[in-house]
Amino acid sequence: MATNVNAEALKELPVPEHHAAGKQTVDPYNVSGEVGEDGVVKAIDYSKLVEEFGTKKIDQALLERFECVTGKKPHRFLRRGIVFSHRDFELILDRYERGEPFFLYTGRGPSSDSVHVGHTIPFEFTKWLQDTFDVPLVIMLTDDEKYLFSEKRTIEEVQGYCSSNAKDIIAIGFDPAKTFIFSDFEFVGGAFYRNIVRLSKHITLNQARAIFGFNDSTNIGRIHFGSIQGATSWASSFPHIFGTDEKKTAAIPALIPCAIDQDPYFRMTRDVSARIHYAKPSLIHAKFLDALQGPGTKMSASIDESAIFMKDTPNQIKNKINKYAFSGGKVSVEEHREKGGDTSVDVSFQYLRFFLEDDDELERIRVAYEKGELLTGELKAICIKELQTYVAAFQERRAKVEDKVVDLFMERRPLQWVGNPNAARVVPVVDGAAEGAADGKEGGDGKLTKNQLKKLEKQKMIDAKKAQKAKEKEEQATKAA
Ligand code: TYM
């Protein structure tokens, strides 16, 4: 079995045959598992993807390093291997430890008026990373992409989806002081456009074809789009956040949480970054929440029966799970009681792995289902309840997001953040970041904030005390000798 996106694509390789019938395909435009000889789509083989994309698996050592640097228990997505792969995440942890700047970047292609539960995975995780690291976050809405990659959608339609999707994203709980959301149609220009062109100059048509599988009939907007999604990885695209000194901003990397389908854009960007001496973006990849129909496909915003949408009513959730959720149970109750169910393919169980916080409870459910003590209907009922609770809490927050809140998140403005409060020294971001900003605001203006100064003073005192103690010890040791 082979995936169709070539990890070495940037090296001017011949164009691989994309989306060859029956093969596993994972790229920004297609996600499907291998089709077996029996015609059944298999689950996505994520180990194979790690190998072929050239990423690294997140292992126990990295999780321990994360916990040591942040003092935080890894998120359930990390504990359960849902966020499973990365590129240079360890470098971000090193920067955090040293108090050096970086930022978070993620995005959404507004293809419908509501996001589905699958889309909330990278956003939930990004929020948690923002809370953990206390760094700026940019969220890109690729309205241009969703126009270019659809035969039917109009510009007006995708722009309309932008504001409803922005509300969905805000309802995840991002901090407005640290978050900038933008739509490509609104924001492209200035420093951002310079970076887009800079990136596009370093990508040949051959490379774009090799990475994304374009052919001679592909419209040129699609071919160029990668440079827009890629250029957002560079801090210098956001002078209102990071300042105007490109010598300094070029060194500030992004950490990009996303599902693994988005990796090709950033593999390409990392290659160009290295060539033009810009910081390479780091990535942290999630697996897909399967479509209701089962493993091997991801939920699709344009197929209603494939997904639970964040606007669905409790009844719709119940009906969709009961009617469509693929079951790993046996055909009869007797057989199920005797042989037990298969949790690895059971969609309800898989959804619980994503959303149920309690590890012990999840383990109890797994064991009971695999032993046949828990029936499919009972498992579905647990899943329905969990999803109804998750979606209802989201809808409550979503109802409070007014248009003016969206305007606030989407306004070009300096952001405020602190970074690692325990770092020995916090490296100031850059000069000139507060262009046009009100005076006296904390953070984002290149100077240390009051908080940072306080922490710095405190750290100096701790260091001085430590040095004094070490000196005393040394003196005692000399005396003793
Ligand atoms: P989009 O709108 O297809 O998806 C938004 C985010 O959700 C992830 N995703 C999923 N994660 C888990 N389970 C699923 N079933 C599922 N479906 C989608 C996607 O990987 C993505 O992280 N081109 C992008 C928008 C974008 C972007 C970015 C995304 C621009 N810049 C940087 C991530 C990072 C898109 O159309 O995403």
Please provide a written account of the structure.
- By secondary structure, the chain is α/β, with parallel strands linked by helices.
- Helices cover 48% and strands 10% of the residues.
- It has helices spanning 46-53, 60-70, 76-79, 89-98, 117-133, 143-148, 155-170, 184-187, 190-201, 205-212, 220-231, 239-242, 246-249, 263-275, 314-324, 333-339, 347-355, 359-371, 376-399, 403-410, 450-480, and strands at 25-27, 30-32, 56-57, 83-87, 103-108, 137-141, 179-183, 254-259, 282-286, 290-291, 294-298.
- The strands form 3 sheets. The chain has a 7-stranded mixed beta sheet, sandwiched between helices.
- The radius of gyration is 24 Å and the shape is globular.
- It starts with 24 loop residues before the first strand and ends with a helix.
- Bound molecules: tryptophanyl-5'AMP (TYM).
- Tryptophanyl-5'AMP binds next to β5, α5 and β8.
- Its EC number is 6.1.1.2.
- Keywords: Aminoacyl-tRNA synthetase, ATP-binding, Cytoplasm, Ligase, Nucleotide-binding, Protein biosynthesis.
- Its main location: cytoplasm.
